[in-house]
Design brief:
Helices cover 24% and strands 25% of the residues. It has 347 residues and is of the alpha+beta class. The chain folds into three domains: 14-116 and 191-312, D-amino Acid Aminotransferase, Chain A, domain 1; 135-187, Dna Ligase, domain 1, CATH 3.30.1490; 317-347, no CATH class.
Length: 347
């Protein structure tokens, strides 16, 4: 599998990232692809704010003023692409497409965002549409023939929070009684786990699908992995994405079971936590997103990426100081002016 030259255009497109948080990797990648970046967040210390060309503080996603604040940023910066970076506001932003015009919202329909955000609804969706999924039940419906170990999993959540393993009925009853969140019960998969980072156009066509191994995860997020030239996973990722109706990016998590099936356990319709790996492997997802914002129709390029790219993630940091107006700005102590550059580069 090989990568081709990146898509390029002389047109500069402004991109608004919502709930920007710590996603410096995504904001910076779009900047390198030629975008003008606008980052929005509730937290004034969100690191991604300070790696964007423009930053803005906005109300909470639960605030009725949230969509209006985003619409104002779209108008102010002539934004043509809105990219929600977390599950927190994806459905909200998707439902607000008309209010955010002329910007393209890079997310599937609100109904798909809602279904994928609730893991039990996602399981029901998969079964209804012919996508393999582990046997899953609501707490009161676990049958006697359920195969232990079972997992008690939060229905709506992220980062592997509130997931408990039960090796027998006593442990299952205990976890269901003590978990503080609405949960479901799922049979534990027995095979190897994989993630597939996909990207679809506005018609739902999968433009690329890049599988990766899960060498190590921490808190539900991949921190070490390798891109895989696995044609079965490439084709499967594309089929699952198109079946669901993904628009833009998604991360599909599945297992290859001993019987050869590929049950899907989770689909996150956004850029995944391991975004740097498919990017380094040649996904060109930022360029493809910008092309969609320009009204272009890129052709699918399934399998065009570099295999064997290994990612190992680490913590970085950003120091801030107040400028003369009381605003926080990036600061590097060894330089006379408050300034920061990308890690690994020289100013």
């Amino acid at each position: 599998m090989s990568a081709t030259a990146p898509l390029r255009s002389a047109v500069v497109t402004a991109v608004l990232f919502t709930c920007a948080g710590q996603r410096v990797d995504i904001v910076s990648a779009f900047a390198r692809a030629g975008a003008t970046t606008v980052a929005a967040d509730l937290d004034p210390l969100a690191p991604a704010l300070y790696h964007a060309d423009h930053r803005a503080l906005v109300p909470s996603v639960r605030d009725t003023r949230y969509v209006a604040a985003l619409a104002a940023l779209v108008a102010e910066h002539d934004v043509r692409l809105v990219v929600p970076l977390t599950d927190l506001d994806q459905e909200i932003v998707s439902a607000a497409r008309a209010a955010l015009e002329p910007a393209l919202v890079l997310a599937p329909s609100p109904e798909i965002c809602r279904a994928m955000g609730d893991k039990y609804l996602a399981h029901a969706f998969f079964r209804e549409h012919g996508v393999a999924s582990p046997r899953t039940w609501l707490p009161e419906s676990v049958p006697d023939d359920a195969r232990y170990p079972l997992l008690v999993k939060v229905r709506e959540g992220f980062g592997s929070r509130h997931i408990y393993r039960a090796d027998d009925g006593i442990e299952l009853a205990f976890h269901l009684r003590t978990t503080p969140v609405e949960s479901m019960v799922q049979e534990r998969c027995l095979g190897e786990e994989f993630s597939i980072d996909v990207f679809c156009d506005v018609e739902g066509r999968c433009l690329n699908a890049i599988p990766r191994s899960m060498i190590q995860s921490k808190g539900g997020e991949s921190i070490k992995g390798r891109s895989l030239a696995d044609s079965e996973l490439v084709e499967y990722g594309a089929r699952v994405a198109e079946t669901i109706g993904i628009v833009g990016p998604a991360n599909i998590q599945c297992f290859r079971e001993p019987d050869g099936t590929l049950p899907v356990t989770d689909v996150n319709p956004r850029f995944g936590g391991a975004f740097p790996l498919p990017l380094a492997a040649g996904s060109r997802y930022p360029e493809l997103a910008l092309a969609l914002a320009r009204g272009e129709r890129p052709e699918p390029r399934l399998g065009e990426f570099r295999e064997g790219v290994v990612m190992t993630r680490f913590f970085s940091d950003l120091c801030l100081v107040e400028d003369g107006n009381g605003e926080l700005v990036p600061f590097a102590e060894e330089l006379p002016q408050p300034v920061a550059v990308e890690p690994g580069t020289v100013d």
